[in-house]
Amino acid sequence: xxxxxxxxxxxxxxxxxxxxxxxxxxxxxxxxxxxxxxxxxxxxxxxxxxxxxxxxxxxxxxxxxxxxxxxxxxxxxxxxxxxxxxxxxxxxxxxxxxxxxxxxxxxxxxxxxxxxxxxxxxxxxxxxxxxxxxxxxxxxxxxxxxxxxxxxxxxxxxxxxxxxxxxxxxxxxxxxxxxxxxxxxxxxxxxxxxxxxxxxxxxxxxxxxxxxxxxxxxxxxxxxxxxxxxxxxxxxxxxxxxxxxxxxxxxxxxxxxxxxxxxxxxxxxxxxxxxxxxxxxxxxxxxxxxxxxxxxxxxxxxxx
Length: 304
Fold this sequence. Notes:
Layout: H1 32-49, H2 71-84, H3 88-109, H4 114-138, H5 145-159, H6 164-192, E1 204-205, H7 207-213, H8 217-239, H9 241-254, H10 265-281, E2 297-298
Parallel strand pairs: 1-2
């Protein structure tokens, strides 16, 4: 007796492509270089902020470093002023931009819908603004998380899907404007240095110092909150530094500069030599003396 033919198996329906955001990257799948760079910059930012908490010290005109101290203190201050202060802050912003593109491409590789990936970036940046607000209210009015988050929201909306040439042009334009404004500001400051404008006038409170040196905690919350509300949009829209370096970070991530450094050795060498030369020579330590300038911020101590 013949055996009846077996019906062919019915193919299982194809799985629908994922539409939600991909989960966190496993430790084995993370790129080590960007993580190490971000951690190093965070450490340097912590070191750069320490002088703000030396409440009882007499400070310099231009920086928060004390005017007194031992030879070792002088050496440390010089290294901080030349290589750390005001340098780790934009470097971390560049790494922040690098991470934005890494997250975006990882979502695309996982099959996440385009709109879902953009929503994820937008949500994460708004959360960063929220964390920055809490940080400023509770602890530190010089918070930069809010500025990074706000810049991220805006730049993702405007540039995340644009061609690299567009990002490059905008970064050059903003950097050029920033250079011109900085040069004009320096020229005006030098021209007015010996005039009556800098010889008379009332003292002005430094808002960051007010937030950290105010003995009443509730009063300090008000000081820090007001400072943060003004500082965050100013850092994004007026200074221009954060948007430029975030765009540079996105461009670097598109070329996988940190994941594949062997392919970019000439660029990395030029950046190290030229960047360090410009950055370090542009940051000589300020004079030892304190200021008698009438419009300079009045230095406060914990007891003042």
